[in-house]
Structures are given as C-alpha cells and as structure tokens.
Amino acid sequence: MKVFKAILFCFGCLLAFLLAAGVSCALRAKYSSIPALRTRFAYMYAGNLAHYSFLQYNQAGSDQGRTALLQYLSLLQRIRNEHIEYSARTLHLNFVLTYLDLYRLESAAGNSAAADGYMKDAQREWSALGWKNQDASMEAFKKLNQSLQASEAQFSGGDDLRAQPTQRKADKSKAKQS
Amino acid sequence: MKKAFVIVVCALLGVVAGYFAAQPASMWYIQSTEPDMFGAFAFTIVDSSIACNCENKPPNEAMKAVADDLSTLRRWRDLNRGSLILAQEIGLGYVRLSQLEQKLGNNTQADNDMKHGQEELAALGWKDVSSEHLTTLVKRMDSGYHEPGQNEKVTAVAH
Q1: Optimal mutation site among A2, A8, A10, A13, interface B, most CBs of chain B within 10 A
Q2: pLDDT in tens, B34-62
Q3: Domains of chain A: which residue ranges?
Q4: pTM of the predicted model, to two decimals?
C-alpha cells in the first residue's frame, strides 16, 4: 500500500510539473514567442521578396516582373490580413512603392486601366501614411514616380547603373518629406 | 503539508521549464505551419553571409565563404525545385564567385562561374546578362552594405 501511495504521489508530482509546463509554454508561445517570431520572419520574408521582385521587375521582362511584384504584394496583404505585428508606416510605404512599380509596368505595357487602378491603390496607401503636410495628390505621385523611374533606369543598364541603393533610399526620404 | 509543498515545487519547476521550452516550441510550430516564413529566416541567414562578407575578407577566404553558401543554396534548391528566389540568388552568387576568382587570377574558373550565373539569370527572364552588366550590378548592390546604417539588403536595394 505504501509503495502504491509513493507511486501515486510521484505521478501527482509529474502531472503537476507537466501541467504547469504545458500551460506556461502555451501562454508564452501564444502571447509572446509566436507573434515575435512571426514578426521577425515576416520582415525577413518581405525583405527577401522585395529584393527579388525589384530585381525581377528591373532586370527581367514585364511578365516576370509582374509575377514577382504580385507575389510581393500578396505577402504584404498577408501581413496585413493576419495582423502580424509590423510597422504600419513601413507596410503602407512598401505598398505605395510596389503599386507604383506595378503602375509603371502596366503603363509601359499599355494596360492603362490596370495602371490607373494601381495608381489609385498607391494613392490610397499614401494617404493612409498620415504624414504631416503630405501631398497625396496625383501630382505628388507623378513626381515620386518619375524620380523612382529615373533611378531605376540608371540601374537597369548603361555605365552608371541604377540609383545607388542610397539613391533609392533618398527617394524614399524625399517622398517622406514632401 | 509536506506533500503539498513538493507538488507546488514541481509545478513551479514546470512553469520555469515551460517558459524556456516556449521558444523552441514556437520555432517548431512556425516551421510546421508556415514553412515559407521559416524558409525566409534560413534564406536570410545564408543570403546575408553570401553578400556581405565578400569585401571584408581576403579573396581566398571570401571565395570559400561564397562557395560554401552557394552550395548550401544549391542543395536547398534541390529540395525546392520551383523557387525563383533561390534561382536568382544562386545566379548572383555565381557572379560574385566569378569576381573573386578573377581577383585571384583564375580566369578560366571565373569565366565558368560567370557562365553559370548568366544561365541562371537568363532562365529567370533577365534581359541583359552580359558579364559587364552583371558585375557592375552586383558591385553596386553589395556597395549598399557598406553604407553606414544600411544593414538590410531590402532597405538598401529594393525599397
């Protein structure tokens, strides 16, 4: 009987340990670890896809560029829809830049309806950025678009290549200031 | 009383164990439920070492690092046959390897690597795969890493 009681007690201890470990693990995972990891991985994934899609758009044909940009766009949508913790401004800005890339791509391909749609989407995201004194007009977009286009043209060929990475960053800051 | 105390201690130990187990468990959870997100994590680790370390090391060491990373990417591509992101990075990796071979005076090997890179990138639909263009492109991309405060490839190159 004593042995049975001792075994039962050990079992009780083990159960208490496992239950507490399970609850603690689940709570920390759900409210801290998983959201943090998803955020970190989402930034990495978005970074990889931004780099890939930009090079495809800039160096490959329009079909390959479109496919890559849409793939990147769908990741941005996923980050938004799944409420992954992500800087709202970065997300809006990435949407703006991707929509503008798509706008330029569709404009060059002569798909004016699609291009207009992307321009409107870009404008909507631009307005959502909520910068002070921002100019969300079509005029400001065209300016930003032209500046991006000029920097991309340098990158895609010729001696001087495309905008230095810093140039593109400068474009972004310019856009931010406007 | 003693028994209750022992059970409480066991429970407390369980809380601590669970707390520390949460991190690997979360990693495992994400790896199994969102393999693409987890893949991005692994890709970033290989990718950043492939691109960033070229100029901080002597050519011999840099070449070994790039060759190792490239072989990791190639093995990985064997498991993800359709991955265009991997194909692009492999193509650019060959261009980097070719630059390093050239620095060491291994011109034949450099030409071979460049040819491999050109094949990979041409298959992705790249319009200009001349060695001059690819070399300048990669140099320009990598130079972004050495700008102060620009560690992220994406911020640097794409958006």
Answers
A1: A13
A2: 888 888 888 887 766 655 555 667 878 88
A3: 37-177
A4: 0.78
